[in-house]
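fyi for ur records
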Amino acid sequence: MVVEGLILIAAIVGTILLFGLSIFVHELGHFLVARRNGMKVERFSIGFGKTLWKKTVDGVEYRVGLIPAGGYVMLPQMEPIPLEGSSSTEDEQEPLPPAHPWVKIKVAFAGAFFNLLFVLFLTTLVWGLGRPVEKSDLSTRIGFIAPESPAAKSELRLGDTILEVAGRPVKDYEELSTVIALSPVGEIELKVLRGEQTLAVPVFLENDKDLKLPVLGVSGAGVPIVERVSPGDPAEAAGVQAGDHILEVNGTAIFSRRQVQSLIREWGTDQPLELVLDRKGERVVVEVVPVMSTEFKIPVIGIQFTEQMVSTHPTPIAQIKSFLIQMRDTLGALFSKKSEVGVKDLSGPIGIFSALQRMLVVDFRIALWFTAFLNLNLAILNLLPFPVLDGGHILFSTYELIMRRPIHPKLIYALHTVFTVLLITLFLVVTSHDIRRTKEMHSNNRSSSESEEPGEAPADGVQPAAEPVTP
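which gave:
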């Protein structure tokens, strides 16, 4: 318990650092370009709310706020629209001259540009350090079909390899999961490889009751390897050992650990089931009598399976390409009338914090990969030509550069106010869904000390890309 607590604390600290660093890099871009072009900088703030720390150096107030959900650089010469903050020059002895529109364009673009540089740095780190993934996720071979799922109601079989979803090729489980989640409810056609045959299998997709998104109800294939045998439990009495590979359960060929878990639950208690094991190349047959778990209220035999993780080394270009495809698909599904994806499926600061924390508990390299994805989101969405965002500043400054006059301050103020209200509303809605999902996750999470307990989400239920927080 002490070790788990320390790991959790370290994950929370790491989450704050990675999230805060993403915001810091963005704001640093604005800050450095503004200073380089001779603009006055009043404040550089990371976080909002109550001030935790501040210091004034060379006329610039550096500040850290209590809520690490964004940041801003206060630049009075960006008026009439303050860049990511607000400033008043009423106390100035002499009003500052407005910045040239080209300078404002450079300053506004610099935040996204620095995020892109950070993406390149992080993806290079992941390329070198590797990104751990479960071995079964490297292909689309089916190792488990959930009962009553769309896959179970179709002609899909264990051992099938899914090649295409509605005509779109899928190369690994992550891509399969995303494509399914972003698909409309209804019948789609899967192209599968079964033995040496390529078949077309129709599947009627349905929404998962928890995710509220389409799922197929399958998980990846891989021979389950016993990591630990609980002392005093049936598996130990039967002679099962750590390192054993489970090949069959009661004569049924095994494709995944989830299949083993399902077969044990279906078998029940008080009657022996036969396990065929591979022990260092030797075929071993044992009989085990499951017992009812007092904690989970399901039949168990007392084993834990090892996570068969492998390290992949995708190049920075491959990672960025994957990020862009996922963003394109998510945004396309978000605005498609046929898709089930909506604002409810996006994530704000709370959702991003939660995701980063879970990844850090598993492996910091996964968190680095996700942080790169987050920064690419942050860069691209901030360049959208909407007031309040950097893209809005670029749009207004471009108009001023071409027309040789700024947009009327009253119009800018009105647009700024409207989009601020819309942004705050979106933030509140997304945050409410984040809180709901977090509560559901905690209520559904059970101890994983006994691996037969299937405390997993639907294997192919993947939410769309997280909505990055707007600094």
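The domain at 131-218 is CATH 2.30.42.10 (Pdz3 Domain). thats all i got for now
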